[in-house]
Amino acid sequence: MSDGILLAGNIFVDRLNEQGVSTGQIFGPINTTKLGIKTEADSVVRTSNKKASKGQALDDVKIAKPAAITWEFDDQPAELIALALMGEVASINDAAGTLADEAVTLPDNQSWVAVPGQNFTDDVVVKQATETKVAGVDYEFNFALGMIRSIKGGSLAAGGSITVSGTYNARTGKRIKGGTKSQTRLRIFGEGTNLTNGKQVNFEIYDTSMMPTKELDLAGSEYVSAALEGTAKLVNGKDEPFYIDELDDA
User: Do 105 and 161 contact (CB within 8 A), yes or no?
Assistant: First the structure.
């Protein structure tokens, strides 16, 4: 039977705190496009200065370096985007509300002005004095963001004082607060099948401090993907920073 390795696996990630303790946030299985482990060593050489062997190696000792970990994935729930942006996830829980003749001053250059609230319904009413203005003719309203601007050629093009009335819906969800963490510590582990011989493979990297290696392109034409790299740490109670098990057939 073949001894090649071609894995189909389920990879999970456990987010650790600054002390290397699990925060109880285990995500997965994650569609991982690369999980690279590179082991290296430094070479410490004692060279000869003798006449007959000048420059030759008398001794050469290899000293292991920390294993380098590269992790790339294209599953992008909020928690994984937070890892790629060195951030954290917070809950969004904004209450619904109403605007009643909210005073707004429009500029004369058709730039946007924010009003209180977001996620508006389509019942927005805009007035100048007692005259109701026409959406799409006199003004444009961004319902998702709660912004208004005048339309060139409309009756509000010169700007001035208006009032805005309407209702906005409650908002719930997740907010990614980027750039709040100086490092991302993870336990990466999983299980899979070696497709060349059908054997089960389990693996675990106990603790790796990682950082993003590329930008997260939110305006790209391809699926958003992320890449992190770091080093595997030797944790207390373990002889190795990571392991890979190939299990015998039951």
Answer: yes
